[in-house]
Automatic annotation (TrEMBL):
InterPro entries: DUF8056. The keyword Cytoplasm does not apply. Keywords: Membrane, Transmembrane, Transmembrane helix. Pfam families: DUF8056. It comes from Haloplanus rallus. This is DUF8056 domain-containing protein. The keyword Transmembrane applies. The chain crosses the membrane at residues 27-54, 66-87, 99-120, 140-163. Signal peptide: none annotated. Residues 1-168 form the DUF8056 domain.
Amino acid sequence: MTEDYGGLVGAFPYAFRASDSRLFRSYVVVGTVATAAVSLLFVTALVGVIAATSGGRGGSLTLSRSFFAVVGLFVVVPLVAPVLLVARRHRRTGSTDRYDAALATTGYLFLLSLYVGLVISVPPSQQTTPAGPLAPVVAALYALPQYAGVVPPLVAAALVGLCHRLFR
């Protein structure tokens, strides 16, 4: 596998072809779909923010637009990081199934942490009464302060980097 992947978009098929880990290959597919969906969501939301604030002049309106774009990057980068790290490692030194599977696991963990963070940050007016086997967990997440919703994704993103350091 000596062919180069030629950039961000080419890294996804390259990593899929280069890895022998089924778990990692599944993450490449799921991560690609999730990255595309999240990117589309943030782009359309950013267009909405720009449209809603287009009448104003500079200042805090410009800052809110920039902050929105930065938050989008903080969500997308950890989604693509496992794929990019594995592609880079295969291209440079070769990789092991253990490394690939570990990064896929942290990628899936980051996806789960995004969901948990969203559940925590649901406004009280939009919360529904939890039902089913996970009702106690959802109720406990609802009870947390809304700003605590950033903690699970931040911890999971740090785990992606930590996993890369430990398994390389």
